[in-house]
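Much of the work behind modern protein science is quiet bookkeeping, done one molecule at a time. Below is the pair of lines this work produces for a single protein:

***
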Amino acid sequence: MPSRPRFAAVILASAAMSLGLAAGCSSPASQEATTGGSASTGKTPASVADPHGKDTSKTADSGAKSSTQTGPGSGSPAPDPCQVLTKDIAAAALGVAVKEPPRTFTNGPSNSCVWSSASGKRATVQLTLFTDAARKDAGYDDSKKQLGGRDITGIGDRAFYGGGQLQVRKGDWYLAILLGTSGGQPTDDQLRTVANAVLANLG
């Protein structure tokens, strides 16, 4: 089992990779990837690799099945994040039409889905589901400390916003949402709307 600092590092690495991917979905894949920055200034990596060096970046098809990683406490496959953050939820969160198919990737104990604007505007929303149930509380607490997160009420059991992302705990679920538009940082109400819609789909 990974130590608390290591698990937190995996979460932060996933978020950093996510920030670069989500913010630059409308730019060519040949552009140089970044490893951090705000959700409105990153660039698209050409691919996303897992810790073992295997390229796991892919485009989700409309009939995507559940992930092979196990869901929290159930022993069943974890849900496909693109079936939790649906096209309708993504479009409502961004206020614009989104293009299909979305982009998915895996980074260690996490699965992510990214939707971007169909018009080419710099607008993206991403959901990351963390699948290591044994380390979720430690990862959340360590990430909040490292990101300087501030609590947001009305979302799940616990939620904070920091480092350009919303992280949420509800029951056994641990997830992160990045909402990036050209209009700047999202409001707390925008974050609540998309997060609660996602949590409703998780049950």
